[in-house]
UniProtKB/TrEMBL annotation:
This is Polysaccharide deacetylase family protein. Pfam families: Polysacc_deac_1. Residues 26-140 form the NodB homology domain. It comes from the Bacteria. The keyword Hydrolase applies. InterPro entries: Glyco_hydro/deAcase_b/a-brl, NODB_dom, Polysacc_deacetylase_ArnD. Keywords: Hydrolase, Metal-binding. The keyword Metal-binding applies. Gene3D superfamilies: Glycoside hydrolase/deacetylase.
Length: 140
């Protein structure tokens, strides 16, 4: 499980490239990939609850299928749940149909577990733009 700082926004100002919102200070977005993990999830959720912080979890569909109660706990505690494909596969080698299935299977499962639509997607390996085709999220 890895934690990264998500890009909220960005751009160029005064000749400088920046990440995040320029008008905000002391703001960071906590994101965790490859969730839920049976060992780390209870510890992480407890730490976030005790510290009053919220995060976005990029959830692997098959992990959510195995540990649905952690996904429900995430939402109950006010965290965001994002799609990290169903099998945690890198998308570029896949056909467009297989990539769409990976996204849709995870979306369908996560929506059924959380009762709300999935708004964010993070591709495994951070590869978003395959060389042979372009994909568009089925929910976009
Ligand atoms: Zn991952």
């Amino acid at each position: 499980m890895t934690a990264t700082t998500a890009l909220v926004a960005g751009g160029v100002h005064g000749g400088l490239l920046y990440r995040g919102r320029r008008d905000a200070s002391n703001v960071a977005a906590l994101t965790f990939d490859d969730a839920p993990h049976p060992l780390y999830e209870p510890l992480l959720l407890d730490l976030l609850r005790r510290s009053g912080m919220h995060a976005t979890f990029f959830v692997i569909g098959r992990n959510a299928q195995a540990y649905p109660y952690f996904v429900r706990d995430m939402v109950a505690q006010g965290h965001e749940v994002g799609n990290h494909t169903y099998h945690h596969v890198r998308l570029p080698p896949l056909s467009p149909g297989a990539a769409r299935d990976e996204l849709q299977w995870a979306n369908t499962l996560l929506s059924s577990l959380t009762g709300r639509p999935v708004r964010y997607f993070r591709p495994p390996g951070a590869t978003t733009r395959p060389p042979r085709w372009r994909w568009r999220a089925p929910w976009a």
